[in-house]
Amino acid sequence: MKFYKYTGLGNDFVLMDNTKGNINMDSQLAKEMCNRYFGIGADGIVLAAQSESCDIRMEIYNSDGSIAEMCGNASRCFAKFCYEKELVHKEEFTVETLAGVIEPKLNIKDGIVKEITVDIGMPKFDSKDIPFKYDLDKVVDYPIQVDGKEYLITSMFMGVPHTVIFTDKIEDENVIAEGRKIEICEYFPRKTNVNFVSIINKNEIILRTWERGAGYTLACGTGACAAVVAGITANKLNNKVKVHLRGGDLTIEWNKLDNVKMTGDAKEVFVGEYEI
């Protein structure tokens, strides 16, 4: 089974062409392929499939075998993959996901995709959309108690469930210890991604994300979008923000009226064959 290994700022994925429907992916196989010691090693599996409503469909499995509605970094890798492997033949196209339609726009030089801007859609703050335990119109600056500690959170559905926590200082051990507890806490019936944000200025932030189903990754694209949206909502950030992640930088734009736009790169790392 032929696969392509891609990375989006260190958030790495195994991509495969399933437009002919000949790959029978399931949770167990996804876990095995993502295993970094006995498999290929990745944060997730991404399949390109036929779509009846869009130019192409993106199907994502997390490294724990769970199915993801969408993924920001995966979407940039997916867009580059689809164009360079000639699954699509346009510089702007539509992608069907479980979270709705996203629209990548490619910056191409000499036939190579150098940068990708993805229209991620609008954030959804209603507690039913996230989902969140309590019935609220918006989960913004809301206090929760997890393992005896209070957090002031802003949560939203940004392709997947996201929770944002602003802090003056981010330490890796806290992201891991606290992120894994918040991910599975009672407030989030379908779990949540947990984003710790430190603001440098109104145009620049530092972000660290504990990802639902993947753990502490080097970057999270939808997390970057959620962090900026939360900052703009709280009047802490301007409409265009550079986000510093462990694996590199993303640029996020949102003016509250239009969809969130994410811009960054993606790279093909290697190609291989996986035996089942």
* Total beta strands: 18
Coarse morphology: globular
Number of helices: 4
Could you tell me the mean pLDDT? 97
Q: What is the terminal-to-terminal distance?
A: 8 Å
Count of distinct structural domains:
2
Percent strand: 35-45%
Q: List the helices and strands in order.
A: EEHEEEHEEEEEEHEEEHEEEE
Oligomer: single chain
> What is the C-alpha radius of gyration, as a whole number of Å?
18 Å
CATH C-level label of the largest domain: Alpha Beta
| Class computed from helices, strands and strand pairing | alpha+beta
Main beta sheet, described?
A: 18 strands, mixed
What's the CATH topology name of the largest domain?
Answer: Diaminopimelate Epimerase, Chain A, domain 1
Helix content: 10-25%
At CATH's second level, what is the architecture of the largest domain? Answer: Roll
Which homologous superfamily in CATH is the superfamily of the largest domain? Diaminopimelate Epimerase, Chain A, domain 1
Low-confidence stretches: none
